[in-house]
C-alpha cells in the first residue's frame, strides 16, 4: 500500500460526515494517531501504522474495540496471534496482555469505554 498522497483532514468532526480512514495518514517508519473523542467515560482514536510497526505487549484495565479501516494486522491476545484485516473488528479484553504488529500499512479505530 502506498503512503497517503494528501494531507489528513484536521477539521473537527462535530456535526459533519467524514471518512475515518482519510483523517489520519501513513508516515513511513512511524505510527500516527488522532484522538477524535476524549471523554472521562472513554476515547475513540484513529491510528495509522506503517508496515512492520507495532505496539509491544501491554494490558489495559478496560475492554477495547479495534476496527480495521485499511490493511492487515496481527493482534496477539494472551499469547494467541490473530490476523485481522480491513472491515474486521476484534475486542481486546480488559486485563489480558495484548500486542499488535502491522503486516501491511494499516489503519484502525480504537474505541475504549471506561465505564
From TrEMBL:
It comes from the Bacteria. InterPro entries: Cupin_2, RmlC-like_jellyroll, RmlC_Cupin_sf. CDD domains: cupin_HP0902-like. Pfam families: Cupin_2. Residues 46-113 form the Cupin type-2 domain. This is Cupin domain protein. It comes from Moorella mulderi DSM 14980. The lineage of its organism: Bacteria, Bacillati, Bacillota, Clostridia, Neomoorellales.
